[in-house]
């Protein structure tokens, strides 16, 4: 009788064939544009661009990058943003900048033949170590890249699945038209950061620190602007401050919670790190506006789980969070035709 080999499977065992990876979704005409370089070594710059393209192709197996037009990486980040022709009369983008930091990466949407496409623009300094796997900044560089590609994926889901096409996505009234852009960064950054957090799990602690500063400062920032309004009566100037400060707050919440929630979902693999995130979130929950964290987490979850868009009512819970924040600061909003009416009743010196 022939002796059976030790590693030969029994008849009842299944032989698992290696799975084929998903197909690439990156379009063949997608280009990588390197603007300037740190030296005159053109071969080095070309090699870096090839690494960027290779990574984009690989990630396109797991993210829908079928409408990614190009990737622009340059030291002249502000100029690179302004150089992108977004079409359809859309004004050029500008870097996000405030006392908490200067933005260095953005996934821009563009209109081409009535279709929404994306162009990713990144400051070279953020991703210079993409091709240096042993560099201490490599993980953060890769996370930045994945984060922006996740934005492309999410935008494509919206454009591909919204009933009647993306142009049919219209706010129901002037109030929603004004408030949705304030809260949208919360869901957008939550999704992108949660999809990218696996690359550098520890980096989210910096994001929570930024969120902490924003949460501590926002009430005083609004109060100072309200005092100026009581003096000069310029409601438009006051409202612009409100929009700027709350938009950044919602953006910071999205970043921080998105990263923290990925860590929590993978706490078995990162027990000590997860404990540090929980402690930081408990600390933030004790702030006067700490309630926004759980409220926003509940409000963004439907976006993160979304497989197909149905309507814009999905924004309602986030808008409710914003309205509550506005109420805390003496503002009450309602629709006023195609615009928004902001009521700011004066009830005494404590309003100042």
Walkthrough of the structure:
- It contains 10 helices and 8 strands.
- It has helices at 42-59, 77-83, 124-127, 138-161, 174-196, 204-232, 235-265, 271-285, 291-304, 316-328, and strands spanning 31-35, 68-74, 97-98, 101-102, 105-112, 115-123, 332-336, 339-343.
- It has a 4-stranded mixed beta sheet, sandwiched between helices. Strands 3-4 form a two-stranded antiparallel ribbon.
- The N and C termini lie far apart (96 Å).
- 51% of the residues lie in helices and 12% in strands.
- The chain has 2 domains: 23-169, no CATH class; 172-352.
- The protein is α/β, with parallel strands linked by helices and 352 residues long.
- Helix 5 packs across helix 9 and helix 9 packs antiparallel against helix 10.
- Decide which structural class fits the backbone: alpha/beta
Q: Which percent range describes the beta-strand content?
A: 5-15%
Mean pLDDT: 93
Overall spatial form: globular
Record field, number of beta strands: 8
Count of individual domains: 2
Low-confidence stretches: 1-9
Residue share in helices? Answer: 40-55%
Query: Biggest β-sheet, characterized?
Result: 4 strands, mixed
- Topology as a string of helices (H) and strands (E): EHEHEEEEHHHHHHHHEE
Round the Cα radius of gyration to an integer and report it. Answer: 23 Å
* Helical run tally: 10
Distance between the termini: 96 Å
Strand order of the largest sheet: 1-2-6-5
What topology does this entry show?
Layout: E1 31-35, H1 42-59, E2 68-74, H2 77-83, E3 97-98, E4 101-102, E5 105-112, E6 115-123, H3 124-127, H4 138-161, H5 174-196, H6 204-232, H7 235-265, H8 271-285, H9 291-304, H10 316-328, E7 332-336, E8 339-343
Parallel strand pairs: 1-2, 2-6
Antiparallel strand pairs: 3-4, 5-6, 7-8
Helix pairs in contact: 4-5, 5-7, 5-9, 6-7, 6-8, 9-10
